[in-house]
Amino acid sequence: MSLDQLEPTDESPELKARKSRRRGVLEWIIVLIVAVTLSFLVRTFVAQEYFVPSGSMTPTLDIGDRILVNKLSVDFGTVNIGDIVVFKAPPAVKEVCDDDIADLVKRVIGVPGDTLYSRGNTIYVNGKPLAQKWTVYKAIGSVPIKRITLKKNMYFMMGDNHAGSCDSRSWGPVPHSDLIGKVFMKVWPLSHWHWY
User: Cα torsion for 142, 147, 151, 154, to the nearest 10°?
Assistant: First the structure.
């Protein structure tokens, strides 16, 4: 059939415009649903932004900093000494630290199988001083690390502000199942953004 043999349609311009608008609205609804679903999946399984509420990680992270956490890194990668991680707050945090926060951010200073303790302001891991290759406030304060050997899937967490951090010294090691993800970037304030 040639083009000149097509029969004209009975649709008026107004009807065509209405159909076009409906189609446009439907397309936008689909785009929004896909965007919200992808955002939910990324936030749940891949990466999430967190707000730093305390000075326990000073000088690395300050109050008000915003950080991005890679959630896949704890499920498909390894957790090492020196990693900064976000994890579910142990139940004892509310009682021991007088803090009602759901998630904490600290640095890993002991992994499964390690024996830790402190003498003065020196932290020992497996009998050797911990080589803290990151910036810390070294004074341990009034809460030393009592000798502990970490069991399978347990991690010892400590804030970089050793004296000003309520951490594994007070509420014990953290199980792997409570780890949320590794901090990989400080995004706010913009003048202090940093990759980890």
Answer: 20
Asked if residue 80 lies in contact with residue 74, where contact means CB atoms within 8 angstroms, the answer is no
What are 125-132's contacts with CB under 8 Å, separation 24+? 125/81, 130/81
Contact between 195 and 185 under an 8 Å Cβ cutoff? The reply is yes
DSSP for 39-101, written as a single string: HHHHHHHTEEEEE--SSTTTTTS-TT-EEEEESHHHHHS---TT-EEEEEPPTHHHHHS----
pLDDT, mean over the chain:
85
**Largest Cα–Cα separation, the chain:** 96
121 Cβ neighbours under 8 A, 6+ residues apart:
138, 139, 140, 162
Element (H, E) at 124: strand 122-125
Contact at 8 Å (CB) between 147 and 37? no
Hey, which residues are catalytic here? 56, 106
Which of the residues in the chain have pLDDT under 50?
A: 1, 3
In this structure, what token pair is assigned to residue 74? 């704890």
pLDDT tens-digit map of 119-136: 999 999 999 999 999 989
SS3 state of residue 28: helix
